[in-house]
Amino acid sequence: MTPILKLALIGHVFAGLVALIFYYAMIPNLIGKNPQLNFLKRLSLFGLVSLLVSWILAGYYYVTYYGQNVKPLIKSGQLPWAHSILMETKEHIFLFLPFLGLVLLASLLSIKSDITRDDNLRKALASLAFLIVALGTAVTIFGVVISGAAK
Amino acid sequence: MDWTTILKISHLIGTVLGVGAVSFIDFFYLRAARDGKIEPSEVEPIRLLTPFLRLGLIILILSGFGYFLFYRLTGHEERLLNPRFLAKITVVGVILINGLLLQTKKIPVNIGGPISSASWYTAFILGAWRALNLSYFAIIAAYVFVVLMAIFTLGVIKKLLKIPI
Amino acid sequence: MINATVLSAILTIIYITVITVAGELYPPLKEFLAKNFSHHWIGKSITAILVFVVFAGLLLVLKPKIKTAFLLNLLSAISIVSALILFSFFAWESFR
C-alpha cells in the first residue's frame, strides 16, 4: 500500500468518526430546552464537511486499491460475506450520509421560526441527526469486520 | 516514540479521564442526593466534570480506532475480530447510547448512572485484561450481569444511607 | 428551500437504492456506469448528486407546501427502509 493509500484509509476513518462526533453532539442540544441554533449550525457544517472528506478519501481507496487487492483476499478467506454483504451494503449506505447531512444543514440554515417553540421540527431534526449517527456507526462497525477479514 | 506508544498513551489518557470523571460524578451525585434534594450548588461539580467525561470518550474512540488502523496496516487484521476487542466496542456503544438517554432525560439517573459507571469500568478492564480468553457472548453476558449488579448495588446503597431519591 | 432539499434527498436515496439493486440484477447497467465513470461506485455517486441537484432545482420552483417536520420524518423512514433493503438484498444475493 502506498503512503497516499494509507493516508486515504486512515483519513476516511477519522473523518467519518469526527463527523459522527459532531452529529452525536447535536442530538441532546436539539432535544433540550434551549437549543442553540448557531452552535447547531456550526456542528452541522463541520459534520457535513467531515462526511465529504471521508467520501472522497474512501472513494479513492476503494476505487484504486480495495477491488484488486483486498476484495480477493476477503472472498477467498474465512469470512467471504464480509465483502459480499457488509462491504456491498456499506459502500452504498454511505452514499446516503452526505445528503442527510446536507438536509440537516439546510434545515438549520433556513429556519425562520423560533426553533425552541417548534417541538415537532426539533424532534424531526434530532431524529435525522440520530439516524446519521446510527447509519454511520453501522458503516464503521462493518468496516472493522471487513478489515478483520482481510487476511 | 513509535505509534504503539503514542496510541497507548492517548488511549490511557482517554480511559483515565473517562473512568476518573464517572467515578467522581457518581460520588458527587450520591453526596448531593443524600438529603433528598439536589441543590444547584451540588450539581456544580457534576457539571464541571462532565466535559472531562466527554473528552475522555472522544480520545478513547479516536485512539481506539487508531489501534484498529494500526493492526490493519501492520498485518494484524485478525486482532480486529478478537472477542475482547469487539466486546469493548459494544460496551463503548452502550456508553454512547446511555449518555444520550441520560442527557435527554429519557432514562432515570438511578438506571443510567450505574449503566455508565459499570460500562466505563468494564471497558477499562477489558482493555487491561489481555489474557482474557472468552467468547464475545460470554463477555457480553458477564457485562450485562455487572450492569444489573451495579443498578442493584445503587439501590442497596440508597436504602442503607436512607437516600430518598 | 427546506422542503425542496428534503424531498430531493428522499428521491436521491430511493434512486441510490434502486440503481444499486438494478445494477446487481442487470449487469449491463453496472457495466454502463463503470464504462462511463471509470468505476460503478463513482458513477452512482455522481449520478446521485445529479439527481439531487436536478430535483432540488425543480422543487425550488414548484415550492411544495408540505409540513417540514413530516418530510424530515419521511426522509428518516425512507433512509432506514432503504438501508434495510440494501442489506437484505446483499444478504440474499450472498446466500443464493
Oligomer: heterotrimer
Structural class of chain A: mainly alpha
Taking all Cα atoms into account, the compactness measure Rg of chain A is 17 Å
Which whole number gives the mean pLDDT of chain B? 92
**Amount of beta strand of chain A:** under 5%
Percent of residues of chain A in helical segments?
over 70%
String of helices and strands of chain B: HHHHH
H/E element sequence of chain A:
HHHHH
Q: What is the global morphology of chain A? A: elongated
Number of strands of chain B: 0
Do you know the CATH topology of chain A?
Answer: Four Helix Bundle (Hemerythrin (Met), subunit A)
Strand runs of chain A, count: 0
Biggest sheet of chain B, open or closed, and with what strands and sense?
Answer: none
Chain-averaged pLDDT of chain A: 93
Structural commentary:
The complex is a heterotrimer of chains A (151), B (165) and C (96). Chain A has five helices and no strands. Chain A has 151 residues and is mainly alpha-helical. The longest helix of chain A has 39 residues, at 37-75. Chain B is globular. The radius of gyration of chain C is 15 Å and the shape is flat. Chain C has helices spanning 2-25, 27-37, 40-62, 68-95. Chain C: The chain crosses the membrane at residues 7-29, 41-62, 69-92. Chain C: Keywords: Membrane, Transmembrane, Transmembrane helix. Chain B: The chain crosses the membrane at residues 12-30, 51-73, 85-102, 109-129, 135-157. Chain B: This is DUF2269 family protein.
Write the layout of secondary structure elements.
The complex is a heterotrimer of chains A (151), B (165) and C (96).
Chain A: H1 3-31, H2 37-75, H3 81-93, H4 96-110, H5 119-148
Helix pairs in contact in A: 1-2, 1-5, 2-4, 3-5, 4-5
Chain B: H1 3-33, H2 40-73, H3 83-103, H4 109-128, H5 136-160
Helix pairs in contact in B: 1-2, 1-4, 3-4, 3-5, 4-5
Chain C: H1 2-25, H2 27-37, H3 40-62, H4 68-95
Keywords (chain A): Membrane, Transmembrane, Transmembrane helix
Transmembrane segments (chain A): 12-31, 43-63, 93-112, 124-150
Protein name (chain A): DUF4149 domain-containing protein
